[in-house]
Amino acid sequence: MSLRFHWSLSSAGEQRRGSKARGSQGGLPDLAALRQYCDMAEECGIDSLLTAFGFHRPDPIVLASALGMLTRKVKFMVAVRPGICSPVAFVQQVNSVSAFIDGRICLNVVAGHTPAEQRSYGDFLQHDERYERSNEFLAICRAFWQNQASVNFKGKYYEIENSTLNTPFVSSERSAPEIYVGGNSSQAEQLAVKHGDCLWRLPDAPSVLAPRVEKLREQGVEVGLLVSIIARVSHEEAVNAAHSLIADLGQVPRKAHTDFAKRSDSVAFTSVLKLADGGPEWITPYLWTGAVPYMGAPAIAFVGSSEEIASAIMDYKQIGITQFLFMGWPDLEEMSFFSKSVLPLVRQKEQVEAASRVDLPTRPSEDTANMERV
């Protein structure tokens, strides 16, 4: 399986957006910057672009709809928070968008990361209950995408009676959108097993992640990493770029993210923030936490030369990671450098890996089965 690469639209047109408190971030889209971003993604062969959810952003499905009409190839990964809207209305929205852009829409399901923000949308459930509700939400969505003539559902959080939708999901490739479940918690993993195609999680060292990734892969779920990237021609240049990124930010962003960590109940966000608080700055020779206190948990980053980043990506592939969702600084330049200097190396390494597997001597069937699971 070839690795797949996605990119986040979160900071399009605003390089250090993550260093600002969410309450101070503008939610109006910069269409010119977003269109330039999408054009670059298509030129670079990026699989999909994440349209994230939050009060400090434009609505993700509206944004995906607008950008989808301006593009030809790239998909849009729409973030959804179950509980914010009706699952029936959401499926109707997704299916409608799919009809306009030939199914170039997939989903990033996140149960929520801050109780205060959830409550501002009218959602007062706690962390574990949000996952229980997400299970029901996706069960209803799946029923529609399985083309059931009429959907009936009665659970703890939703009751649907004789529901039909006359707008089907439209795609030349799939009968339903791919579903990416976001989170580092055991509840996120369970939700991905039940309803997801892939689990998005924030990274740690390959040796730490390997057992959890193997368990999920055995249950038929892909695992991908949401990680930032600072790739340059040389290792020294990449490290200098990483340090320059945070050199002039001061303590205000650090306080904003410290305060956010106190309010958040997200296992993914709080675990990475804790990892960066007083822990080693380098988790591995290429995984850097230095920007996390200033720009948030998603700022945990791959840092290094083209060859080092490509090798790092392959290290994660060896433990079963199949997809990557990147952010970069500055994003357009990072995306371009990745496609020209890192991605060709990754594809070469994948070809070598595939050839070595073909050349392996024939083994008993049990050993072969074990090898394929690695």
Q: Quick gist of this model?
A:
The chain has 374 residues and is of the alpha/beta class. It is 47% helix and 17% strand. The longest helix is centred in the last third of the chain and has 28 residues, at 331-358.
Characteristic key phrases:
374 residues, alpha/beta, TIM Barrel, disordered C terminus
Question: What's the CATH H-level homologous superfamily?
Answer: Luciferase-like domain
Helical segment count = 14
**Average pLDDT taken over every residue:** 89
Task: Please indicate the count of domains.
Answer: 1
- N- to C-terminal distance: 13 Å
Instruction: Please give the CATH architecture.
Output: Alpha-Beta Barrel
- What is the radius of gyration computed over CA atoms, rounded to a whole number of angstroms? 21 Å
> How much of the residues is beta strand, in percent?
15-25%
Reported for the largest beta sheet, the result is: 8 strands, parallel, barrel
Descriptive report:
Helices cover 47% and strands 17% of the residues. The chain is α/β, with parallel strands linked by helices and 374 residues long. It has a single domain (4-373), classed as Luciferase-like domain (TIM Barrel, Alpha-Beta Barrel), CATH 3.20.20.30. It has an 8-stranded parallel barrel, surrounded by 7 helices. Helix 1 (31-44) runs parallel beside helix 13 (331-358), helix 2 (60-68) packs parallel to helix 3 (87-101) and helix 3 (87-101) crosses helix 5 (127-145). The protein is globular and about 60 Å long. The model is unreliable at 365-374 (pLDDT under 50).
